[in-house]
Each structure stands twice: as C-alpha cells, then as structure tokens.
C-alpha cells in the first residue's frame, strides 16, 4: 500500500542490467529501470520488442539470463512466482469457466486460509470495487468481455499485492469498452495506490493511462518519460515515429542548429551533429503554423517560413489533415493538422497556397 511514508528502499521496483536470451535470440538487452511506489508505468513498443518478456521476468514466469530484480528492497531475482508479491491480469481473461464469479475471485483467498466470513466480505468488497456487485453467482460465460476483465482485475488485487501486472488487459475488448475501462482501471489503481505495470502496444492507451512510459524496441529501452515528454520531446527517431504522426524530412546539417531541407536552410533543434551530416528533421503535423496567404507579418521566425500548396484536405472529425507540397522542399510532402476554427479563419482549401512556419524548437534533428 502507498502510505506516503518514507520507505527504506530508493525505488519500489528496481531492475538492474537485465538480459534474457531464448537460445541464440536476445529478447532483453541490458534493461535497467526504477519504478516508484504507487506509479503506473506502461511498457510500450511494437510486437516482439520484449515488453511481455520483461513483465514475465518481473513475475518470475520467465527467469532472466542475467541481471537482478529488487522489489521493496528485497532481491527477488530467483524467487518462483508463488513467492513474489504481485497480482496479474492477462489479455485473455483466464477465469475458470466452471467456477462462479465469486469462486473465481476467492480462489487465492481460500488458499491463504482466511475464514469463510472474511473471504465472503472481501469478495463482496472487491465486486463493489470493480462495479459488479450483483454478478457473483454467475459464471464467466454469462458476462461480457469487459465484465470478465473487471473480474480478472478483482481477482488480481484480492490479496492486496504490492505490484499489479497487466499484460495487454484491454486489447481483446471492443473499442468503446476499451476506452471506458481505461478510466476504470486508472481510477482503481489510484484509489488503491498500487504500483502498476501495464504492457501495451496501443500508444493512446499508454499516453492516457501512464505516469511514465517505457518505450521499447528490439529488446532495449529507447526512452523512459512522462507521456508529454515521450510525445513532445522524443529522444530517438524510433520514439518520434512510433508515437503519433510525424513528418520526417531528409536533411543535411548546414551549420550549428541549421539544416538544409530541399533547397532551403532552416533553424532547427538538435546538438552534436557535424556539418554535412545527413540527418532526419522531424516535425509533428500540429506544430506547423499556418499563416494564411502570403504575408510574413506576425511570424516569430520568418526565416523558417515557406510557401506551400495545399494538395488535399481530409476531414478527421475533430480536425483537418492537410497535405502540403512546396517547390522548396522538392518531392517531400508535409502533413499538417489544423483545427476546424483555423481552417475556417484562414479559408484553407485544396489547391490554395499557404504560407507555413516551422518553429525551430519543434523541428527536431535525428541521426539518419
Ligand atoms: P507482443 O506484443 O507481440 O506480445 P512483445 O513485445 O510482448 O510482443 P515478447 O513476447 O516479449 O514481445 O517477445 C520478445 C521476443 O522474444 C520475440 O521475438 C519472441 O518471438 C521471443 N520470444 C518470446 N518468448 C520466447 C520463447 N519462449 N522462446 C523463444 N523466443 C521467445
């Protein structure tokens, strides 16, 4: 439980130089990570990046090839799952089909040797906690997928574990239920204050739920940060590209903080590049500032402005996605996202010209 009191350990969960090999294949490569008590952390990455393997190592379901895991100041590296302190929810609800919902939840409590009355009270409390107070006598098959997953969650927290592990718990559910359950899971986690790790390949899920996101790729950690850090300040091109939309422009470094894209030099952000180096300059679609026709008034950085032609406008409900072409940029197409208000105010339409400004602090340079 998160009591807010100072604890004798620095981090609730400490992973140190963890490696995992399956035969010749290295699934985890020198992973180090600290998670604070009460934190909600998401492991995010494409299929096969190692996020499930890392979660399973924390649970003791797979034992690491090298490295150490500490939980609450105790080395758990070589403990079997039953001796570790966690509850887990899998993508497939994994409820016992022949047991009632009550029995599914009380299973672990019965093994812990609690009294009948204590078990019954705890089951009632848990069913209320997950919003299904009247479903205890039913069987799993009589519940919807979303309800079954709430029961799986109730079962996982029944013993008040110090750590809650969620392995793609929402990905088998349909879109509406999934979005709804995001809030419920997050609320529950906050209420309980339980340190939680969720594996997901859904960036929106990670951005909306996590206190911190661990972005993984090919068995390594690409970046650890808050959702806004990961989205706004990606440290690698992989992170920039994996999360959200990103314009990636071939560029050449032309001086300190300057890149040439097509035939024009832009001021950009990024250090440690040498002149003449081939790089990628990246900018999010919503960061490209529209300035209407051809005026250069009100521009913070006129040197980063170019005239484009709008080739296509796509209505995406809450905003417009514009495709832009410019002789200055050569064959590269830009995507820019504009609010409905901006489109109306600037009278943007296909085949019209548009002056855009690319803010230098949003134009990020990455190694090619
Ligand atoms: P997904 O979202 O597809 O589950 P993931 O990021 O969770 O992907 P892992 O399941 O951790 O990926 O797998 C990482 C890599 O390790 C994959 O290439 C996978 O094929 C491999 N792998 C996982 N388990 C084993 C195993 N038991 N034996 C051999 N290779 C394995």
TrEMBL record:
Keywords: ATP-binding, Cell inner membrane, Cell membrane, Membrane, Nucleotide-binding, Translocase, Transport. It holds the Pfam family ABC_tran. InterPro entries: AAA+_ATPase, ABC_SmlMolc_Importer, ABC_transporter-like_ATP-bd, ABC_transporter-like_CS, AminoethylPonate_ABC_PhnT2, Mo/tungstate-bd_C_term_dom, P-loop_NTPase, Transp-assoc_OB_typ2. One of its GO terms (molecular function) is transmembrane transporter activity. GO terms for cellular component: ATP-binding cassette (ABC) transporter complex. Residues 13-243 form the ABC transporter domain. GO terms for biological process: quaternary ammonium group transport. The keyword Membrane applies. This is Putative 2-aminoethylphosphonate ABC transporter ATP-binding protein. It comes from Sneathiella litorea.
